[in-house]
Amino acid sequence: MASVISMFGAAEKKVEEAAKEAGEAMSTMATAVEEQVSAAAHTVEERVQAAEEALGSASAQLVEMMRAYLHGKITMVVKAVTGALPYAVKRVLDDPEMPQAARRVKDRAVDIAWPEVQEQIALEMEHGFTDLRDALKELAGQKNPEDDKPAYCCLIAFLRYHLYPYDRGLWGVSTDPVWVLTVLLSVIPVFSVAGYIFPLIFLLIDKTDEFQLLFFIVQVKGIQFLSQGILGVYVSFFEFIACSLSVEVACRDKEVAGQWAQFFDMLSYVLIFLMVWAAYAMVYLLSRRRAPKHVGDEIPPATFRGGNMLYLIFLDLLLTLIGVTILVVVLSSADWDFAAAQVGYTVEAIKVVHGFLMLPFFVMLVVPILRNVVLHTRPTGYDRKGNCRNYTGPAGQTPKAAEVIPQMELFGRAE
Q1: DSSP letter (8 states) at residue 98
Q2: Which secondary structure element, helix H or strand E, spans residue 390, and what is its range?
Q3: What average pLDDT does the segment 137-165 reach?
Q4: Residue whose C-alpha is closest to residue 265's, from 307, 303, 210, 227
């Protein structure tokens, strides 16, 4: 009986040991299965992520290929169409009573201007395709890199956005007190205010953007036509009348601060001249830096952005040299007395004549289409962070391309 009990005890012990070994084996197996499942899950996740990246890259390449293909085809068609338009323009501008010499001048002007018009049309097409590409990226969920740029100093960002916003037009900024105050100060034809406002604006703008530099030149010289040309005539006229009719009015030769007034007038004149040439030199250096390496040193002025404005810049230089020469002659005859009456009248006459001859810049300032044809640059502005971005216009009036693309009937009207 005792042997039977011992046999049952040994069997029970063996069963317990077997159960323990089975439990350990199951635990080991479960751990191995869990590790394999986890590894498989990671592998699947990596493969899915790799597939998504490959799909995104392929779609981006496809979009770029489609854009390049359409751009090339449409460019060929537009060039073929615009190449035949000069003849039609000449016929439209013809007049049966026009002298032959005037007709030749008219035809020559069309021949000279038309290549610039063609180039601007090509640039506008390039801008349109760029907007289309950005809109497709936006629809695909890709972020705009310009949104991630760091913000500038709060004062710089504030002034940049309020003076040159990228999303507001003329009617939008005309209600902005900062913009209105700046414009009023820059057109005041007395105290040489404009000569000290524009240096601050020059320090404020982004000098790595070609349009900002070129528009600064157009703005400075265009406002010079308005302030020193148009308004300067009226100021000088009424000042002369006041000095002629009343002996109590302090004229230029009797002013206590006349010498300092003339000095600051001439200093303002020189500052404007230096700023314009500094901005144009920066544009030229930017164009040379971004030009293809195989291009030689002898580049025609019109081949880089803003190059057509070189002739107007040289006109400004010629007028400045003539004005300085006349002023030096008058000063020498007045024994270098800056407060002399003839010196003051000479300075006013030089400023008025120079201002009136800046009419081409004023026309470019108020006619954006002509400005784009001459400058061949895409307009830019600043966002609320102070970063320079492509000009989009009023957001409430001009819908984004991402909002228009889904409504485009590319393959017929959807039912």
Answers
A1: -
A2: strand 388-390
A3: 74
A4: 227
Sorted by sequence, the CB contacts under 8 Å of residue 159 that are 6+ apart come out as 178, 204
Residue 197 near residue 190, CB atoms below 8 Å: no
Q: At residue 12, does pLDDT exceed 70?
A: no
Contact 112, 53 (CB under 8 A): no
Query: Where do we find the tokens 């057509």?
Result: 308
Sketch the domain layout of the chain as residue ranges: 30-139, 152-397
Listed residue (70, 71, 69, 63) closest to 121, CA to CA: 71
Neighbours of 386 (CB within 10 A): 21
- Rounded to whole angstroms, how far apart are CA atoms 53 and 168? 37
What is the model's pLDDT at position 117?
66
Cβ atoms of residues 344 and 243 within 8 Å: no
Q: Cα separation of 88 and 72, whole Å?
A: 25
Backbone dihedral angles phi then psi of residue 389, each to the nearest 5 degrees = -140, 165
Residue 41 structure tokens: 């899950």
Q: Which neighbouring-strand residues pair with 388?
A: 382
> Cα–Cα distances in Å, from 402 out to 55, 132, 258, 354?
21, 8, 61, 47
Buried b (16+ CB within 10 A) or exposed e, 173-206: beeeeebeebbeebbebeebbbbbbbeebbebbb
Closest CA to 235 of 193, 190, 191, 280: 190
Share of the chain above pLDDT 70, in %: 52
Q: What does the radius of gyration of the chain's CA atoms come to, in whole angstroms?
A: 36
Q: CB–CB of 137/406 below 8 Å?
A: no
Q: Which residues contact 368 (CB under 8 A, 6 or more apart)?
A: 379
Is residue 314 very low, low, confident or very high in pLDDT (cuts 50, 70, 90)? confident
Confirm if 351 and 233 have CB atoms less than 8 A apart: no
pLDDT at 216: 92
pLDDT digits (tens, 9 = 90+) for 123-142: 666 656 565 566 555 555 55
pTM listed for this prediction: 0.64
Asked if residue 169 lies in contact with residue 396, where contact means CB atoms within 8 angstroms, the answer is no
Band (325; pLDDT cuts 50, 70, 90): very high
Tokens standing for residue 393: 């216009």
